[in-house]
Amino acid sequence: MEGTQNRFIPGLEGVVASQTRLSHIDGKAGELYIGGFALEELAPNATFEEVVYLLQHDTLPNAGQLERFGRSLTPFRMIPSATTDLLARLAPHKVSVMDALRMGVDTLSVSSEGADAERDRRDAQIVLGGGPTIVASYWRMREGLDPVPPRDDLSHVGNYLYMLSGEDPGSARIRGMETYFNTVVDHGLNASTFTARVITSTQSDLISAVVGAIGALKGPLHGGAPGPALDMVYEIGTPEAAETYLRAKLDRGDRLMGFGHRVYKVRDPRADVLSDAAETMYRADGDLQLYDLARHVEKTAIALLEEYKPGRNLQTNVEYYTALLLHGLGFPVELFTPTFAVARTAGWLAHCFEQRAAARLIRPSSEYIGVVDRRWVPLTDRN
Ligand SMILES: CC(C)(COP(=O)(O)OP(=O)(O)OC[C@H]1O[C@@H](n2cnc3c(N)ncnc32)[C@H](O)[C@@H]1OP(=O)(O)O)[C@@H](O)C(=O)NCCC(=O)NCCS
Description:
Order of helices and strands: EEEHHHHHHHHHHHHHHHH
Helix content: 40-55%
Strand order of the largest sheet: 1-2-3
Bound molecules: coenzyme A
């Protein structure tokens, strides 16, 4: 053992590794607070800029502060030509959007060495502004389309939607997406956030912290797979088919995608917020068929999970309605996780700022389980 009081805790479960004022999860009560606000209150009402400001300044901005804050970010929507060139080279190889985002963010700045408050502030603007442009530009390149240059008269989220489609997104779509961004912006000390904090704690720069966090989010155990949840609803197809389909899955020992959570043992509060946003979206489009089917599948799944796994309290999680909402916004499955990353970047950065203030290198211990009695054997004498 390296330290004196060490006990190996696989996955660091239950270990309190940082203090934060950014978000608070009560898994038993099914509550999530962002910057002190209940998610249900903040997410559907705030603009994303307001939430980013709240995370960075621990207070909501007034009108003047919000206007200045929004304006300070727009110049960074333009990405360097080196980044665009890189994306253009990746597109013919159909590199995944998450990998393109990881590599693209890395090229946004080359002068980000060391810790300095002014440099941190600028790096945060660079990544917040440039991330959506990388995802949207690269996606269009992969689809054989020209990238759409950013507009500075649109909000952060409005501009992201615009750069993806080249069309004015309209206020209902912007509101739906803004609610999604606000809902997933931060969620305690998850793996990618922890990664960003570890990198920041070494006094490395914020670009490096976000690149590392994207790498962590990319893994299927974290970035999640809302895609399979959507596939499941599509495969079921009609309300009448739900029970037979779900029973067959559970009989086979399969997991139902979009249900269950490590922390929440009641309904994930993010699922409610996103379900409401999705309903508004589908209602505005005049077609509630998929939404109604998803609600029916959800109800049937929860009842069956209680039957098959009694007492486990397996409830709907964030992925289920993320899939429905993003699909309703016209997003292809491959953009689900990159869009999550673009929203979560604001949370990562706020954690980086907190970690800077904490000014403490994160350096846990390990438990040595190897041997200590080996003797050196020259290469020529080895079998
Ligand atoms: C999210 C998840 C990994 C959490 O897992 P966890 O807290 O570690 O739960 P456990 O793996 O301890 O599972 C507890 C029991 O419930 C079952 N279970 C958990 N989620 C289930 C699901 N979605 N469908 C069916 N059974 C499930 C497990 O098989 C296990 O049963 P057992 O005790 O008979 O073996 C898990 O619920 C899951 O795989 N869900 C589906 C994938 C998903 O939606 N992921 C996105 C998460 S945001």
